[in-house]
Automatic annotation (TrEMBL):
Pathway in which this enzyme or protein is active: Amino-acid degradation; L-histidine degradation into L-glutamate; N-formimidoyl-L-glutamate from L-histidine: step 1/3
NCBIfam families tied to this protein: hutH (TIGR01225), PRK09367.1 (NF006871)
Keyword annotations: Cytoplasm, Histidine metabolism, Lyase
Stretches that traverse the bilayer: none
Gene: hutH
InterPro entries: Aromatic_Lyase, Fumarase/histidase_N, HutH, L-Aspartase-like, Phe/His_NH3-lyase_AS
UniProt KW NAD keyword: no
Name recorded for this polypeptide: Histidine ammonia-lyase
EC number: 4.3.1.3
Lineage: Bacteria, Bacillati, Bacillota, Bacilli, Bacillales
Catalytic activity: L-histidine = trans-urocanate + NH4(+)
Localization in the cell: Cytoplasm
Length: 505
């Protein structure tokens, strides 16, 4: 059971909820704060004070006063009118993350919602009811208004959900689980949608997959080093300590560990003096990606525990302040950085693929073909990798440098962070397939060299990989092999330490 308090949610806990199906509850102390902030909202309504989002309209309508008799209609109209999401829905795991993160944000006690709102959100998580939330339509400021409105529809019994493998009306799933829809009252609709949970949820899922891929890329690159009889001296610790980046040092150490008992690596001058950059500079390039991943993780962990709606209630209602915590710029930058950093893993991987298949760059069979000329072997696999890499260059164009005014120019600068998070996820999806291609080619090259000479780590990878992708003994539809390897990488969990090395899949 993961216990939320609005302050301390970690990546480890999020993983357990998203991928292990762990249930969620809240602390009594956090709910006490929620109740206190709710009293402040009710007092504002009773006293008919003018406070944005509680007794006023929204956006450009912030100067329109709303009487106490209309506060429920105001919140309902807000959710229905703002549910303008378009396009394909977010993956279920992202929807689940959105619900989790929104509940955690409301538990901080700055939003003025009733406890029942948070309880309903946690009911969705615990019953595995995931709102159908279209991916497009958010500007990433004023919160992820359109996506989160589709989330909010579900707790009032409207909209659609994913439930037990089917897409069904929300009310059907709620009824089957004995969950009663609620009627939103003052400020609650605004509190549900005025946040960054769409971009953050997409970012969290993207980061989890990116971190796994970054580790996998190092094992696959190690196997490529063996296939190309790479020079191990380039990974000597002294080189990397001399520069000083911890992540670079760590990558070099892991590569040395993976290849410690390999008979296929060489020393400088033994076959050649230096390898090409795509081999020699693995620690520098992959290390720089790890630097970015660490930055992204830090920002996401802050945002997972942030109050991002407006207005916020402080000092038991003595201060109700309008601000701009819904602006997604910090996550927008992080997502753009993530896309760029991961795109580079594919860039350098594709160059290693080229070195594995190009007969002008190695002494392996041309294109790793069993019968060069009659059979093309891995020739077009490199084409496919190059295509994905080129597509990533377009997707890596930063979304955060764009803005467009909205709400009659009241909201005149926006982050486009949700676009950035979606693009980062698309990049990661492409990176995985490029690495799948490198893995297939590296396995074939290592087989040509002699698998009995491989390191223990890479040989374990090779052995498992061959269960999925047979040796290239003749041309076949390699698309199926790429997808098989891709699926294994997506599902696999690779854990490495200096003393022991295990591959779990």
């Amino acid at each position: 059971m993961v216990t939320l308090n609005g302050q301390t949610l970690t990546f480890a806990e999020v993983r357990r909820v998203l991928f292990d199906g762990e249930k969620v509850t809240y602390t009594d102390e956090s709910m006490k704060k929620v109740k206190e902030s709710r009293k402040a909202v009710e007092k504002i309504v009773d006293e008919e004070r003018i406070v944005y989002g509680i007794t006023t309209g929204f956006g450009k309508f912030s100067d329109v006063y709303i009487g106490k008799d209309d506060v429920e209609a105001l919140q309902l109209n807000l959710i229905r009118s703002h549910a303008c999401g378009i396009g394909e829905p977010f993956p279920e795991v992202v929807s689940r993350a959105m619900v989790l993160l929104r509940a955690n944000a409301l538990l901080k006690g700055y939003s003025g919602v009733r406890p029942v709102v948070i309880e309903r959100l946690l009911d969705l998580v615990n019953a595995n009811i995931h709102p159908v939330i279209p991916q497009q339509g958010s500007l990433g400021a004023s919160g992820d208004l359109a996506p989160l409105s589709h989330l909010a529809l579900v707790i009032i019994g409207e909209g659609e959900v994913f439930y037990k493998g089917e897409r069904v009306p929300a009310i059907d799933a709620l009824t089957k689980e004995g969950i009663f829809p609620i009627t939103l009252t003052a400020k609650e609709g605004l509190a549900l949608i005025n946040g960054t949970q769409a971009m953050t949820a997409m970012g969290v899922v993207a980061y989890v997959e990116a971190e796994k891929l970054a580790h996998q890329s190092e094992v696959i690159a190690s196997m490529t080093i063996e296939g190309l009889r790479g020079i191990i001296d380039a990974f000597d610790e002294d080189i990397h300590l001399a520069r000083g980046y911890k992540e670079q040092v760590d990558v070099a150490e892991r590569i040395r560990t993976y290849l410690a008992d390999s008979q296929l690596t060489t020393k400088q001058g033994e076959i050649r003096v230096q390898d090409a950059y795509s081999i020699r500079c693995i620690p520098q390039v992959h290390g720089a990606t790890w630097q970015t991943l660490n930055y992204v993780k830090e920002k996401l962990e802050i945002e997972m525990n942030a109050a991002t709606d407006n207005p916020l209630i402080f000092d038991n209602g003595e201060k109700v302040l309008s601000g701009g915590n819904f602006h997604g710029q910090p996550i927008a930058f992080a997502m753009d950085f993530l896309a760029i950093a991961m795109a580079e893993l594919a860039n350098i991987s594709e160059r290693r693929i080229e070195r594995l298949v190009n007969p002008q760059l190695n002494d392996l069979p041309p294109f790793l073909s069993p019968e060069p000329g009659l059979q093309s072997g891995a020739m077009i696999m490199q084409y496919a990798a190059a295509s994905l890499v080129s597509e990533n260059k377009t997707l890596a164009h930063p979304a955060s440098v764009d803005s467009i005014p909205s709400s009659a120019n009241q909201e005149d600068h926006v982050s486009m962070g949700t676009i950035g998070s979606r693009h980062a996820y698309q990049v990661i999806t492409n990176v995985r397939r490029v690495l799948a291609i490198e893995a297939i080619c590296a396995m074939q090259a290592a087989e040509c060299r002699g698998t009995e000479k491989m390191a223990q780590v890479t040989n374990q990878f090779f052995t498992k990989g061959r269960e999925l992708v047979p040796t290239i003994s003749k041309d076949r539809v390699f698309s199926k092999d790429i997808e098989a390897m891709n699926d294994w990488l997506k599902a696999g969990s690779f854990q490495f330490t200096k003393k022991t090395t295990n591959i779990h899949s």
